[in-house]
């Protein structure tokens, strides 16, 4: 028997979560059984924990948690042996496949990545999907020519999970980072992560009036989308790139093609769910090397399985700062 945050659906179609003891025979099929040590909370987790499953959970009972890190307990795949430390993000785990909000998980070996040297399982979950996505975004910007001497890099939604890690990574690599937030009380937090200046959301969230504005940003990690992304595109320097990682401000993009045609601006889509193994390994190795661990710790709020229902609701309301690390064994 082991503990899990089990989502169960009532007759009215609404789901609720409670910590319960369940048997190992409840685990889904998979090549590798992992003794989970830590998980985390992402926006998608909040959706899955909501009463209707956010349109993501199709079958109950269900165990959420799109990320986890732990130790291999049993393996039918030669790539992994008992005792190996592993991390998992993406692959729709926690949505359509049972995830990390439990003390055990069983998954396909292809979905796992060996924990990089220099990272603990706890640190890996302080990073989680949000930090992994942030690293993919930074790598994409670098691959398109971004360098620290090119000018300021904008991070929108900077106090959120992706934004916090992106800010710390970029600052650690020597970039001048401007962090956008709608929460003035988070200014000191962002400066502590390395942001050189804070941009109020209101300054950059207006509807586009002119397709081109003053060239301001050499690069951007955008977690907001919507009108803010459209506005940022018109403020990019010639040849600059925006890595789009989220849609907290909406899925519509009321933008002009003019920045693409007259300034050669690049809009780069970042998906973290279905990334191939080689990209995952490269990103996690970069995280271990380039993310300042002291800054990572400043982002962390500790939690337990019992805290998750409230945290899921809070993250959907934009009330979770930085990263949450869930110790599933407390």
Descriptive report:
The chain contains ten helices and 16 strands. By secondary structure, it is an alpha/beta fold. The protein has two domains: 2-115 and 297-327, Medium-chain alcohol dehydrogenases, catalytic domain (Quinone Oxidoreductase, Chain A, domain 1, Alpha-Beta Complex), CATH 3.90.180.10; 128-269, 3-Layer(aba) Sandwich (Rossmann fold), CATH 3.40.50. Helix 2 crosses helix 3. The model has no long low-confidence stretch (mean pLDDT 96).
Distance between the termini: 15 Å
Uncertain spans: none
What percent of residues adopt helix (DSSP H or I)?
A: 25-40%
**Biggest beta sheet summary:** 7 strands, mixed
Structural class: alpha/beta
Mean pLDDT rating = 96
Overall outline = globular
Total count of helical runs of at least 4 residues: 10
Number of strands: 16
Give me the CATH superfamily of the largest domain: Medium-chain alcohol dehydrogenases, catalytic domain
Count of discrete domains:
2
